[in-house]
Amino acid sequence: MPSFQSDALVFFGATGDLAYKQIFPSIQGLIRDEGLDVPIIGVAKSGWSLDQLKARAKDSLEHHGGIDEKAFRKMTELLRYVDGDYANAATFAAVRKELGAAKSPLHYLAIPPSLFGVAAEGLAKSGCAENARVVIEKPFGHDLASARDLNHILRQYFPEESIFRIDHYLGKEPVQNILYTRFANPVFEPIWNRTYVRSIQITMAENFGVQDRGRFYDEAGTIRDVVQNHMLQVLANLTMDPPTGEDHEATRDQKASLLKAVRPLTPASVVRGQYNGYKSVMGVAAGSTTETFVAVKLFIDTWRWADVPVYIRAGKELPVTATEVIVEFKRPPRETFGEIVPGTSSHMRMRVSPDITIALGVRVKLPGERMIGNDVELMLQRQAGADEPPYQRLLGDAMRGIGDLFARQDLIDAQWRIVEPVLGNVTPLYTYERGTWGPEEANQLIGTDGPWINPQVSDAKH
Predict the structure, then answer these.
(1) What percent of the chain lies above the pLDDT cut of 90?
(2) Smaller CB count within 10 Å for the chain: N or C?
(3) Which of 142, 152, 168, 230 is catalytic?
């Protein structure tokens, strides 16, 4: 399908939380930075007027990044509003009318997944789906079967190349930086394999609980919420082979190939935990067995990564908020200087948040006559504040038809296939105290491949 610029933006769920926190700031950014100048049509069932939507947009920007007067003025000129039920054909007829001369709109479904099919059908029957693109938000299903059902519904009305499954994590600059660092520097790729790598750790820690998301979180849990998508995408960036050729699908092809080679999890390779106090959160079931922490052990069945253990852990109410990757290299076959050296002395550390860090762990000689040393890190660090916001980048890419940073259906299937055997209450659930690194059983899981390397954040709130 040839690439073209979408000539209108329609966003469903215009009065909702996602629009308030992400979409309005992204639209202002696209107007300010890229000169976006197309009809912008908000759709919702709230009984609102256009003036109320404009007021909501202003309030959104005041709380999320600030108002750029020139860009905001342009936004209010472009903004339209359609109020109506998604099950009502008149709603989509009104959208078609507001599109005017636009022939290639982008439809952003910032609505619950249960409404995707209704909205897609309404767009198709009203003529709004012709030569159009559609953006949907995760979760892309609740398991492998529901993900495939969702895809079947969407494919009735839109071809695969016109479906943009948005996972904001893929739009984060530091996540893309993993790929860039690997493939733009010739020093890394020769040692990025089972011959030189002893193990890999990926940690996503949050020092807060589920807050006001109790009901949603209790239906999802950590595996569905962040491991199945965010953490496996980080793993793919970290371990995929280099993209080949000039095909714009080359990167996603390599990610899909990698994820299809990841061995499905087994109950023995998973430790689930739940922090004390979780059951008292509003919306959480009294006898909930939903995990707020998980640690898993993975293997990738390829020549490059055969027998290299990959450990992923993610959780809430941990000591810090940070996401970090540790690639631990094997020690030399013989310790020339007779030292007892810790296994983690030689490593590469990549911090994804809250700052961007690339660090190499090396061993250097201590001053003096004796040939002994200690471990140091050579570190490059910068704050992420100046980066383009993920949603702005992804929304701009979707309007240009660039799908590299979006999830393709075969990637979604591969991710669900990996976690499917351990979904639900099929493994023991251990409790842990807030402010700790999860249950002790996670340390037993990593065993002699450990210890876990805990991210250090200087301004962490305990």
Answers:
(1) 65
(2) C
(3) 230
